[in-house]
């Protein structure tokens, strides 16, 4: 069903149409639910908001016109409520135990045209490889996808490798701290979302993971993203800190293993350069978000005659009722 709606649009001479269309799509401004209009001389590209691109294309003009638009449905229109779900690449993940799981899956496929598969999660993230049991509820029978994030692509099998899109902003925050010449060690790298983004700026990244499937996908993703400054180690981080020439090489150590990162602090301190930064992730109760984690790091450093300075501490996301995934950026000196 279509409705007539007045929208902003970009008037473009026909000969300039394709480069302008590509720019609008790249900006995320192109309104896909409205049909492009044309006359003898011009194309009229509908846009989501008032924009200014005349500095790049002097022959374009912004104006308003009436367009035929696809009438948008909402989840409330379809289901009567808004469901909770994650989207990773062209796969959506919902709770398999939800009594409305099949209805929710059908609604997601209807609402999101790029989603090809809806998986149901049968368990929480668990086990030494931090994966969860999944079943296909609707769409194509697959668990593998390619997820795009901040200009990088990650090929992943969600049934065999841990991945969450909910840390995208956090991964970018860490990558923005990395400078040319820095060495980054990612102690629990998975398929590489922290490592690959950091490698865009770092001199070298050492990516460690003990899941052989994860390191297989990490190798694929380095090729997919044309990364050539990464060393990949398939092993438990506790076993390699002293055995792979890693002692005191890192300007940044990423410890994204929030349930048990504290067990690897001695290895992280071995890997870190004096004055380097540990990015330490933890799951904390709401009545002690940061102090307990800071004390754990301080105690581990003190045992090695090191001192710590907390540069930043923040809540990354809500994890469970009264529990939060937090991060501390800690500079370590001495030793």
From TrEMBL:
Taxonomic classification: Archaea, Methanobacteriati, Methanobacteriota, Stenosarchaea group, Methanomicrobia
PROSITE patterns: SAM_MT_TRM5_TYW2
Gene Ontology molecular-function annotations: tRNA (guanine(37)-N1)-methyltransferase activity
EC class name: transferase
Signal peptide (UniProt feature, chain positions): none
Annotated SUPFAM superfamilies: S-adenosyl-L-methionine-dependent methyltransferases
Keyword Cytoplasm attributed: yes
GO cellular component: cytoplasm
Record-level GO BP terms: tRNA N1-guanine methylation
Official protein name in the record: tRNA (Guanine(37)-N1)-methyltransferase Trm5b
Organism (species): Candidatus Methanogaster sp. ANME-2c ERB4
Sorted UniProt keywords: Cytoplasm, Methyltransferase, S-adenosyl-L-methionine, Transferase, tRNA processing
SAM-dependent methyltransferase TRM5/TYW2-type domain location: 85-334
């Amino acid at each position: 069903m279509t409705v007539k709606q007045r929208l902003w649009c970009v008037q473009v001479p026909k000969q300039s149409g394709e480069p302008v269309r590509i720019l609008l799509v790249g900006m995320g401004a192109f309104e896909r639910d409205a049909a492009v209009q044309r006359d003898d001389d011009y194309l009229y590209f509908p846009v989501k908001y008032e924009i200014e691109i005349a500095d790049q294309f002097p022959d374009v003009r912004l104006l308003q016109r009436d367009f035929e638009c696809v009438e948008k449905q909402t989840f409330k229109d379809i289901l009567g409520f808004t469901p909770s779900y994650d989207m990773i690449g062209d796969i959506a993940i919902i709770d398999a135990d939800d009594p409305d799981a099949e209805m929710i899956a059908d609604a997601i496929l209807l609402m999101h045209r790029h989603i090809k598969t809806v998986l149901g999660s049968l368990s929480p993230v668990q086990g030494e490889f931090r994966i969860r049991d999944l079943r296909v509820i609707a769409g194509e029978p697959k668990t593998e996808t390619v997820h795009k994030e901040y200009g990088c692509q990650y090929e992943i099998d969600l049934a065999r490798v841990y991945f969450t899109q909910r840390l995208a902003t956090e991964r970018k925050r860490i990558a923005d701290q990395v400078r040319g010449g820095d060495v980054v060690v990612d102690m629990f790298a998975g398929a590489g979302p922290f490592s690959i983004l950091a490698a865009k700026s770092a001199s070298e990244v050492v990516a460690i993971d003990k899941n052989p499937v994860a390191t297989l996908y990490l190798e694929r993703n380095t090729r997919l993203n044309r990364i050539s400054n990464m060393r990949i180690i398939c092993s438990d981080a506790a076993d390699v800190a002293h055995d792979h020439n890693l002692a005191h090489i890192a300007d940044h150590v990423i410890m994204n293993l929030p349930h048990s990162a504290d067990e690897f602090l001695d290895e992280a301190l071995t890997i870190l350069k004096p004055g380097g930064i540990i990015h330490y992730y933890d799951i904390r109760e709401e009545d002690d978000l940061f102090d307990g984690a800071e004390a754990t790091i301080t105690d581990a450093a003190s045992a090695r005659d090191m001192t710590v300075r907390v540069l930043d501490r923040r809540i990354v996301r809500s994890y469970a009722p009264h529990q939060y995934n937090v991060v501390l950026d800690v500079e370590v000196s001495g030793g």
